[in-house]
Amino acid sequence: MIWKQVSLVTVLLLAGCTTLAGKPTATSPCPFEQVWDTSIAALEGVRLETADKAAGMLETDWVTVENSTQAGIMQRDVNRERARYVVEVKREGTGAAATVLQLREAWSPMGVKMNQWRAVLGNPRDEEAVAAEIARRLKEKGC
After folding, report:
1. Cα(50)–Cα(9) distance, rounded to whole angstroms?
2. What are the residues whose beta carbons fall under 8 Å from the beta carbon of 8, sequence distance 6 or more?
3. Residue 25: φ, ψ to 5°
4. Quick one: which H or E segment has residue 99?
5. Is residue 90 within 8 Å of 99, Cβ to Cβ?
6. Model confidence over 99-140: pLDDT tens digits?
7. Residue 33: CB partners within 8 Å, gap ≥ 6?
8. What is the pLDDT of residue 69?
9. pLDDT tens for residues 85-105?
10. Angle at 97 between CA 84 and CA 83, to 5 degrees
11. pLDDT in tens, 14-58
């Protein structure tokens, strides 16, 4: 099960559908292990689906988020959205960096793709907030 999810993220990244280039990154002179542990701690409250330390990949389970779209001519609040985070922790010289990506999906009971989850753009502010939380926690540790 874990390998399927790591493979899914890898396929998405390699296919160019989703990329970590330009995504918010918390860079630190702290060693990889400390940045890894701090990244896990910064995701508290969300269940981790994948934590592959050898690959440097963390992925959370889906969580329901406030939807950004409404449905139909009456603009009803029947749509739902969910998000998950992927954090890549890489060694950089003597330190490490944690890059944050939000995968987001929307569901609507209306339209051609009714009752199906479909990929939508992640929220850059949410990605920045997670990266800032990792950086804040690292700074508290003297990094």
Report:
1. 11
2. none
3. -135, 135
4. strand 95-107
5. yes
6. 999 999 988 776 665 668 889 899 999 999 999 999 999 999
7. none
8. 57
9. 999 999 999 999 999 999 999
10. 5
11. 333 456 788 999 999 999 999 999 999 999 999 999 999 999 999
Position of tokens 């569901």?
107
How far is 83 from 110, CA to CA, in rounded Å? 20
Residue 102 in contact with residue 122, Cβ under 8 Å?
Answer: yes
Take residue 93 and report the two structure tokens written for it. 């010289």
Amino acid, res. 18: T
CB within 8 Å of 125: residues ≥ 6 apart: none
Element (H, E) at 97: strand 95-107
Only one residue has tokens 């949410």, namely: 126
- Alpha-helix runs per DSSP H in the chain: 2-15, 32-42, 124-140
Q: One-letter amino acid identity for 94?
A: T
In this structure, how many other beta carbons lie within 10 angstroms of the beta carbon of residue 120?
A: 16
Cβ pair 78, 103 in contact under 8 A: no
Long-range pairs for 16-24: beta carbons < 8 A, 24 or more residues apart: 17/119, 18/101, 18/103, 20/88, 20/99, 20/101, 23/99, 23/100, 23/101, 23/127, 23/131, 24/99, 24/100, 24/124, 24/127, 24/128, 24/130, 24/131, 24/132
